[in-house]
Model the fold of this input.
Amino acid sequence: MQEEDKIEISRSEYEKLKEIEEQTRMSREKPFSLYDKVNISVKVLDFVIIGGIFFIILLIIIGVLA
Done:
């Protein structure tokens, strides 16, 4: 019984190590990107980011001129 428990523990440890190995391999294959975390297309996300930057610049210009 003890030997079976040791086998089960080593299998779970093996699975954890395999998962960690796969994660590190995947992280080496492609660089980290913020776009991976969002389910929006890259074009839409770029448009929103650039639009937000222009909006902030516009607010600064209006504040300076007013």
